[in-house]
Amino acid sequence: MPKIELKEISDIARGLEIPPDIFLSEAVESFLKKELRKVQAEIYHLCGKYEVNKSSDIDEKYRKGELKEEGSWEDYFKLDHLEYRRKQILSALEKLNAIS
């Protein structure tokens, strides 16, 4: 996606007769919600694959010997990262709502 300068964003907002700050806030919120949906879909997929609710459940399965690390550890770390990413996005959305 090409880089858009803040001036161009302001020009687009004015052309649409939307205050630039409102336009930008709503664009950021839409972007974050889209990212959240993608992250949640990946989390859902990985949790379903291992029949768990969160990454720590996979860790528990390792400790109990119910799951071998070989072939699954990449998914474990990916799920852990996705959960962290979800927290970041939710925090950003909360900040946006606090500003609004």
Tally of helical segments: 4
When the domains are counted, the total is 1
Helix content: over 70%
- On the 0 to 100 scale, the average pLDDT is 94
Termini distance?
Answer: 28 Å
DSSP strand content: under 5%
What does this structure look like?
With 100 residues, the protein is mainly α. The protein has one domain. Helix content is 78%, strand content 0%. The protein has helices at residues 6-15, 20-50, 55-64, 73-99. Helix 1 packs across helix 2 (20-50), helix 2 (20-50) packs antiparallel against helix 4 and helix 3 packs antiparallel against helix 4. The protein is elongated and about 60 Å long. The mean pLDDT is 94.
List the helices and strands and how they pair.
Layout: H1 6-15, H2 20-50, H3 55-64, H4 73-99
Summarize the structure.
This protein is mainly alpha-helical. Helix content is 78%, strand content 0%.
Key structural traits:
single chain; 100 residues; mainly alpha; 4 helices; 78% helix; elongated
